[in-house]
Design goal:
The protein is built from 11 helices and 12 strands. The protein is of the alpha/beta class. The protein has a single domain, classed as Rossmann fold (3-Layer(aba) Sandwich). It has an 8-stranded mixed beta sheet, sandwiched between helices. Helix 2 packs across helix 9 and helix 8 crosses helix 11. The chain is globular. It starts with a helix and ends with a strand. The relative contact order is 0.19. The N terminus is likely disordered.
Length: 352
């Protein structure tokens, strides 16, 4: 409601200025640089939403809008800078969750970009098998893809569901009562989630929430999420609203398990932004210029900020159509409703 009121007031002010002749502009222009994109996203950042979560993670400001750090430096140094800004210290054995990327030409995060951060946390890179075929549906083949894409050269690597599933309870959900993650999920005490932000053929977009729900889901878990709990063996046949809400609920189960979000943090990289996911081996060419890197302790806030930055960028029409056509923002709406995080955020540009 606050977000709607803010937008309505802004629209009324704009009409007022136009009527008084205070502006000669015929309409807003699309930003042409990453700094302009950041400014636009900061202006459109939603007001703080009332949290229904059971705890307030570090990095959340006192007015309940979550802090999201930003740099336009898409480099190992920039990635390390936003990670350090979180002030987060992992405990125990650390997993680094990412997508290994479907061959032959997906836009997965390159090992040379992430190596320093993986070394910093002394992490093991982890992933789960897919449920829809392709080169990563079988464990042996998936290990080969990880090797071919250079991940085994920079760190230890594990397929979490090579030995099946374990269950996490879902609290406060309306679709799921259990979430099925890889059986080795509990072998790790802390999680650093590295997500390449992009579109997605079914979810509309992929970011932090998709990476901890579908991404950490075992093959069984992926089927459960896609069908809102109706099938453990097939990912097909579910309805869209049930799918988006199940992603949010599965993500909350992961966060809850990890100390109510204390032992998991998120980094989204906004580069090579195609309307297609890294699970697509031949994605559409990126329409949006590289924007930057975001980091937060709140998966809802970082995904909302990623959406706002991407939508404000030149060339975003195809991505907007993809997200809106799949009702992708409902994932964020439901995630906020069940207490996974806040869509309200404070965007902090580390270069300012």
């Amino acid at each position: 409601m606050k977000r709607f009121v803010s937008i309505l007031l802004a629209a009324l002010l704009l009409l007022c200025f136009s009527a008084c002749g205070s502006s000669t502009s015929s309409g807003p222009s699309l930003p042409e640089s990453s700094s302009e994109v950041v400014s636009s996203a900061m202006e459109s950042a939603s007001e703080p939403a009332e949290s229904t979560g059971s705890s307030t993670p570090e990095g959340t400001s006192t007015n309940e809008s979550s802090v999201v750090y930003f740099t336009d430096d898409i480099s190992p140094e920039g990635l390390m800078e936003v990670y350090k800004a979180l002030g987060w210290t992992p405990t125990g054995k650390v997993a680094v969750k990412l997508s290994t990327g479907e061959p032959p030409a997906s836009n997965y995060l390159r090992p040379e970009l992430i190596k320093d951060v993986v070394d910093e946390v002394q992490g093991t890179i982890v992933e789960c098998n897919t449920a829809y075929g392709g080169s990563r549906a079988q464990t042996a083949m998936h290990y080969q893809v990880a090797k071919d894409h250079g991940f085994t050269d920079i760190a230890d690597f594990q397929i979490l569901d090579e030995d099946g599933s374990m269950t996490l309870p879902v609290t406060g959900g309306t679709r799921l009562t259990e979430n099925y993650v890889g059986a080795a999920f509990a072998d790790y005490d802390s999680y650093l989630v590295l997500s390449h932000f992009k579109g997605h053929a079914m979810a509309g977009f992929g970011g932090a929430i998709k990476n901890i729900s579908i991404g950490l889901g075992s093959q069984e878990g992926k089927c459960v999420i896609h069908t809102a709990g109706n099938s453990h063996t097939s990912p097909w046949g579910g309805d869209q609203t049930g799918f988006t809400e199940s992603m949010a609920e599965a993500g909350k189960a992961v966060s809850d398990y990890l100390g109510n979000g204390e032992r998991i943090v998120y980094i989204n990289v906004l580069n090579n932004i195609s309307i297609d996911c890294d699970c697509d081996g031949n994605p559409a060419a990126p329409d949006i210029h590289d924007i930057g890197i975001l980091a937060s302790t709140d998966p809802v806030a970082i995904d909302q900020a990623s959406i706002d930055l991407a939508f404000a960028a030149e060339g975003s029409e195809s991505l907007q159509n993809r997200v809106n056509g799949r009702n992708g923002l409902h994932t964020l709406e439901h995630a906020e409703e069940i207490g996974l995080g806040s869509r309200g955020y404070e965007l902090i540009d580390l270069k300012k």
